Amino acid sequence: MTLSKLKQTEQILLATVIVVLILGAYSLLRFIPENKTIVTLQKQAERTAIKLQTARIPDEPEQDVEELLHQLDEQEQVLALINTMADNTTQRLAPFGSQQLMVRISELARTTRMRIRSNEAYQAINRARATKFKSSLKSKSRPKARVVTTEVDAILPENYNWIDRMSAKTMFHRPIQRLVLEGDYQSLRAFIHGLEGLEWQVTVVQLNIELMPAAPMRGYAQLLRSELVLAL
Which of 109, 141, 175, 192 could form a disulfide bond with 114, CB atoms 3.0-4.6 angstroms apart? Predict the structure, then answer.
């Protein structure tokens, strides 16, 4: 049966059905998704409004802002002073393996009439172990965490002696030299004070003194055997 053979009433009814089907399809494909988006946005707006109502405004600082800024300026000045002092100290440190410094120490011993019996690098027991910081980088695709290990120079506490605190793998690592000298007290005193006058920083971190077994001749000072551990 063709459309032309239908009665006018039937044609109107058929056209009405087609329009209803088209509107229903449009609502299903267009209106319903848009309506879901609107509902989602409305819920987000409601949650945001609740958060704003329960949010706590930070209290005003009791101290005056200008006073806080003044304290901050003072701390920055102190930090700058510390950095300047650290730079000045670093400039006085001899390079690692400096032969020129060793020559200066030998010349000082000869000038102060101290006889060098031994002059060698001091092998300190390395009590410092690099501190390891482990951070896990978790991945959803892997059940196991990836561990990243970083080694840094350790800072030993104050109850350690300076030989340990200047050993390898520490923050204050410096070359350490062991000297065994022979001479009287006045010569030893002049040698130790002479170390302060060198162009590079030399610090006595350990000193052991004992009497020489041979008795001095009449009118001569008692000879001493001195063991010095120097941080260069």
Answer: 109
Long-range contacts of 186-194 (CB under 8 A, 24+ apart): 186/221, 187/112, 187/113, 187/114, 188/112, 188/114, 188/224, 188/226, 190/112, 191/108, 191/109, 191/112, 191/114, 192/228, 194/108, 194/111, 194/112
Residue type, 164: D
pLDDT at residue 131, rounded to an integer: 37
- Cα dihedral value 90, 92, 95, 100, nearest 10: 180
CB 131 within 8 A of CB 169: no
188: which 2 tokens?
A: 């030893």
Give every residue of the chain whose pLDDT is below 50, as ranges.
Answer: 3, 130-139, 147-150
Nearest one of 104, 100, 161 to 127, comparing CA atoms: 161
CA distances from 232 to 94, 106, 131, 203 (A): 7, 14, 25, 7
Amino acid at 165: R
Tell me if 227 sits within 8 A of 179, measured CB to CB.
yes
Percent helix, strand and coil across the chain, each rounded to 5? 45, 20, 35
Can you tell me whether residue 219 is helix, strand or coil? Answer: coil
Q: Looking at residue 148, what is its pLDDT? A: 47
Contact 228, 178 (CB under 8 A): yes
Chain segment 78-89, per-residue pLDDT in tens: 887 777 776 766
